[in-house]
């Protein structure tokens, strides 16, 4: 896919050549000055006239009329050097590759050194390039009957870098690609409808992932889940004909199984709401209620590729939330694996129930730090909108580490408070230790607070991605549908993780 070359020969034949253009007085120097000479200085003229723009994310296409080997040149505007960040560079690449893809090219070349700034070196640029390439050209195949016309796919990219060692550039391209592919896998899992991705299918997917990356894997079936007393998880599955699966993957990157990070993802393959049934408009799209599980599996894929020196246990409780004569009901009292009893006030608040047992189980597997991730509440959309993941924590310095990773990944998150007053609301039940739905005020917060009851003293961060897991608008780094949000944040968090002194 990526071929790195240290010699940049303008005569080499390519369908396209991509050049980055910073908004600075000297537009063409070094190899680019040679390029401009080939065009008798006309490129400089085109910049002056504004036909080629250095404005951030503007894409200008110029035909080469046989003056160089490449048929056309794509100039990518990068704006002012001091303002160009890793994120913005990825977006610019994303916009470029969408354009290149639409032009149906099968191969193109890129002059990496034209994307280097004082803050971003060739290795950053290479990572941004390959990650953006995977993300921006992602497409969910779907289930339409295919036409017979062969599809042209951009499959070969020659990367020229005179300033950086080819092997190093190749490594960065591979890492960026792993981040992109892991996110795309998460997107695909979310885009698949509930009839085609059951808990059993998700478990099979995890087994396949485990064999690809030599993870230890454990899939608990219904009998084992019953034996362990996971009454909260089982209650949600009670109305379904599909058996539940508790999926566990272990990656050991240290000699000892210590400082274990637990990644816990909500894996509801379809959420009808149960007897607290959703509206006919609200139920559409609920195939995406396993977005947390998808992010965890996507992150595990990246971890499998990059193999950091960390220990990770991924735990995914998976089932659908259905209605039948057997289904659980409001007023039911259930007993979680932790022993805590729960009064069910709303069967649509099922995510926190399955996560309660999953968090407890992650601790049983040795997790000393927990991050749970879930399409948990409509309330987080009311609070933070559609572009920001909601976060909560019982441990500020663990939260800082997750926040740092999210900033590096370019995924927005914002913390919601966890005060005693809201913990009290979760603990307020006449018949049980907890209730699963203390009323609509601060939905997102009480949902997080409920999960926190099961994290107990273990450092824990909760991520609510109900607003960010999908998008109804295409963007530079992806199409409409699943975003794969937080896949990269989780993987980066694991990679950079520093154990906290106890
Ligand atoms: N899966 C939903 C949350 C959701 C909403 C995800 C919109 C994606 C988009 C969750 O299980 C749910 O139904 N939450 C309820 C909780 C309430 C009934 C206490 C909510 O937030 O409305
Ligand atoms: Zn629900
Ligand atoms: Zn749900």
Automatic annotation (TrEMBL):
Query: Which residues of the sequence carry a binding annotation for Mn(2+) 2?
Result: 266, 271, 289, 350
State the organism named in the record.
Answer: Neobacillus rhizosphaerae
The protein's matches in InterPro entries, at most eight in alphabetical order, are given as:
Leucine_aapep/pepB, Macro_dom-like, Peptidase_M17_C, Peptidase_M17_leu_NH2_pept, Peptidase_M17_N
Q: What class of enzyme is it?
A: hydrolase
> Active site located where?
278, 352
Identify the residues that bind Mn(2+) 1. Answer: 271, 348, 350
Under catalytic activity, the entry for this protein gives:
Release of an N-terminal amino acid, preferentially leucine, but not glutamic or aspartic acids; Release of an N-terminal amino acid, Xaa-|-Yaa-, in which Xaa is preferably Leu, but may be other amino acids including Pro although not Arg or Lys, and Yaa may be Pro. Amino acid amides and methyl esters are also readily hydrolyzed, but rates on arylamides are exceedingly low
Localization, per the record, is: Cytoplasm
Tell me which CDD domains the record gives.
Peptidase_M17 (cd00433)
Return the protein name: Probable cytosol aminopeptidase
Residue ranges of the Cytosol aminopeptidase domain? 346-353
Q: Is-annotated flag, keyword Cytoplasm?
A: yes
Q: What are its cofactors?
A: Mn(2+)
The molecular function terms of the Gene Ontology recorded here are: aminopeptidase activity
């Amino acid at each position: 896919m990526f071929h790195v070359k240290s010699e940049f020969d303008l005569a080499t034949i390519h369908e396209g050549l991509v050049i980055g253009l910073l908004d600075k007085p000297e537009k063409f120097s070094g190899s680019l000055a040679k390029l401009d000479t080939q065009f008798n200085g006309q490129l400089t003229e085109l910049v002056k006239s504004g036909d080629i723009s250095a404005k951030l994310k503007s894409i200008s296409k110029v035909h080469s009329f046989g003056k160089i080997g490449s048929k056309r040149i794509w100039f990518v505007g990068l704006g002012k050097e001091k303002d160009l960040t890793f994120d913005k560079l990825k977006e610019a690449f994303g916009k470029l590759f969408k354009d290149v893809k639409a032009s149906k090219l099968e191969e193109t070349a890129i002059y990496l050194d034209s994307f280097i700034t004082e803050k971003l070196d060739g290795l950053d640029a290479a990572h941004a390039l390959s990650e953006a390439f995977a993300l921006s050209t992602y497409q969910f195949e779907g289930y339409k009957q295919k036409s017979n016309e062969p599809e042209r796919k951009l499959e070969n990219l020659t990367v020229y870098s005179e300033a950086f060692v080819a092997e190093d550039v190749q490594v960065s391209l591979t890492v960026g690609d792993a981040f992109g592919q892991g996110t795309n896998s998460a997107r695909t899992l979310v885009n698949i409808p509930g009839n085609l991705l059951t808990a059993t299918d998700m478990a099979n997917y995890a087994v396949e992932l485990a064999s690809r990356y030599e993870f230890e894997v454990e899939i608990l079936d219904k009998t084992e889940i019953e034996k362990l007393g996971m009454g909260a998880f089982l209650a949600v599955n009670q109305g379904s004909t599909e058996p539940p699966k508790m999926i566990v993957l272990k990656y050991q990157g240290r000699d000892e199984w210590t400082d274990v990070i637990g990644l816990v993802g909500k894996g509801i393959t379809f959420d009808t709401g149960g007897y607290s049934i959703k509206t006919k408009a609200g139920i559409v799209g609920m195939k995406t209620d396993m977005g947390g599980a998808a992010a965890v599996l996507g992150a595990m894929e990246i971890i499998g590729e990059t193999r950091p020196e960390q220990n990770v246990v991924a735990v995914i409780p998976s089932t659908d939330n259905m209605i039948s004569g057997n289904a659980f009901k409001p007023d039911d009292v259930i007993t979680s694996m932790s022993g805590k009893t729960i009064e069910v006030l709303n069967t649509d608040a099922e995510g926190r129930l399955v996560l309660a047992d999953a968090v407890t189980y992650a601790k049983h597997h040795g997790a000393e730090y927990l991050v749970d991730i879930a399409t948990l509440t409509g309330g987080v959309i009311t609070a933070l909108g559609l572009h920001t993941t909601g976060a909560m924590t019982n441990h500020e310095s663990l939260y800082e580490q997750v926040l740092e990773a999210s900033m590096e990944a370019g995924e927005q998150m914002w913390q919601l408070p966890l005060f005693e007053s809201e913990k009290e609301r979760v603990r307020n039940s006449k018949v049980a230790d907890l209730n699963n739905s203390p009323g609509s005020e601060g939905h997102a917060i009480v949902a997080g607070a409920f999960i926190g009851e099961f994290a107990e003293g273990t450092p824990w961060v909760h991520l609510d991605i109900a607003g960010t897991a999908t998008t109804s608008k295409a963007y530079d780094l992806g199409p409409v549908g699943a975003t794969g949000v937080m896949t990269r944040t989780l993987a980066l968090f694991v990679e950079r993780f520093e154990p906290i002194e106890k």
